[in-house]
């Protein structure tokens, strides 16, 4: 049960309300909107992350699910189990990513496995070995590697907030996958 | 030695050049600028966090330094130890945040102690008990508590990025809060 009141969209600035509306009036946004002096910037950072075409959607969701699992964040898990399915992650793969170690034997491709390995080691040890870093970096290149790391950073930080507020999972509303720059199919 | 090459600040799009000119030509920005699509949005978040009047610099630095310490983030520690000094924290207080001196004897204000305890519990357990949440809410109020969590969240997540890349410390450049 959430520990503070959800902000009413009527009580937000036009810019904040519009940024929230575009992503569904999810409980996470209505909670964080209580920090009205910094909420818009946080939403703009999120919009940039969500609309960048650099990472394939499926790869993004693998990273988010592994992060949500290791951060023990029921809200992120609840949202992203469904979003991951939309992005082409199978139920078996979702179950593997949200268990201690069976992701290692799931049928991810080499790049996906390298990225999940990086996510897992980083969140477990707060650092990564040369070998694990190099594997992901060689597969992705510098731009996409930095995006993966920023994604881990954003969702791990968000997990702390969601857990601190004990935000209720939305009944049915899920983050829509927004159209991306340069992506004509979604 | 950083595991990802750092870009040249002069070669970046105008909004990023402008941000770096204001906040400092730091290795962290030259790293994140490898991903311009997400970095541009991230800079807007950082600007709001540091331009907001909700917390004074000193309170923010208490939180940031504690996150940096518990995350083992060498780069954040290197930048923010100096900023914390500039914000008026004593050597004894800085050492207490870094667990090398007694926190009870360091003369923190009530708010600063609540912030320290909040960050410690979040970093250690990834959440807060009902009691800890109530203590923080009663001390800060709902808006400021949410904003404090936004700040903690930013530095907590950034620590993972910095640690993964093993980012080199800046020789002289300092963040302008």
Question: How would you sum up the global shape of chain A?
Answer: globular
The count of DSSP E runs of length 2 or more, i.e. the number of strands of chain A, is 0
Question: Unreliable runs of chain A, pLDDT <50, ≥5 residues?
Answer: none
Uncertain segments of chain B: none
* CATH topology call of the largest domain in chain A: AhpD-like
Q: Can you give the helix content of chain A as a percent range? A: 55-70%
Instruction: Tell me the β content of chain A.
Output: under 5%
CATH homology superfamily name of the domain at 57-162 in chain B? AhpD-like
> Which architecture of the domain at 57-162 in chain B would the CATH scheme give at its second level?
Up-down Bundle
Radius of gyration of chain A: 16 Å
Instruction: Look at the helices and sheets of chain A and give the structural class.
Output: mainly alpha
**SS strand fraction of chain B:** under 5%
CATH homologous superfamily (4th level) name of the largest domain in chain A: AhpD-like
* Annotation field: number of helices of chain B: 9
């Amino acid at each position: 049960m959430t520990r503070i009141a959800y902000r009413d969209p009527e009580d937000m600035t036009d810019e904040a309300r519009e940024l929230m509306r575009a992503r569904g009036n999810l409980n996470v946004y209505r909670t964080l909107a209580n920090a009205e002096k910094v909420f818009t910037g946080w939403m703009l950072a999120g919009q940039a992350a969500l609309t960048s075409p650099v990472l394939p959607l499926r790869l993004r969701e693998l990273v988010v699910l592994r992060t949500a699992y290791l951060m023990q964040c029921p809200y992120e898990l609840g949202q992203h189990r469904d979003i991951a399915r939309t992005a082409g992650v199978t139920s078996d793969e979702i179950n593997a990513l949200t268990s201690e170690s069976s992701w290692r034997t799931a049928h991810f491709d080499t790049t996906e496995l390298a990225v999940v390995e990086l996510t897992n080691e980083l969140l477990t040890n707060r650092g990564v070995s040369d070998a694990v870093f190099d594997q992901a970096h060689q597969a992705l290149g510098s731009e996409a590697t930095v995006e993966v790391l920023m994604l881990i950073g954003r969702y791990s930080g968000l997990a702390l907030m969601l857990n601190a507020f004990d935000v209720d999972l939305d009944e049915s509303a899920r983050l829509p996958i927004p159209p991306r720059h340069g992506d004509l199919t979604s | 030695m950083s595991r990802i090459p750092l870009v040249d600040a002069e070669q970046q799009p105008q909004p990023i050049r402008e941000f770096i000119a204001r906040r400092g030509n730091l290795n962290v920005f030259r790293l994140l600028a490898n991903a311009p699509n997400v970095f541009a949005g991230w800079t807007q978040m950082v600007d709001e966090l540091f331009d907001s009047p909700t917390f004074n610099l000193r309170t923010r630095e208490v939180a940031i330094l504690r996150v940096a310490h518990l995350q083992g983030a060498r780069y954040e520690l290197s930048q923010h130890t100096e900023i914390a000094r500039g914000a008026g924290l004593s050597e004894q207080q800085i050492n207490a945040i870094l667990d090398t001196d007694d926190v009870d004897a360091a003369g923190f204000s009530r708010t600063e102690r609540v912030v320290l305890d909040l960050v410690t519990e979040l970093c250690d357990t990834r959440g807060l008990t009902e009691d800890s949440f109530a203590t923080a809410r009663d001390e800060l109020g709902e808006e400021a508590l949410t904003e404090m969590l936004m700040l903690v969240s930013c530095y907590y997540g950034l620590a993972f990025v910095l640690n993964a890349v093993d980012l080199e410390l800046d020789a002289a450049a300092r963040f302008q809060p």
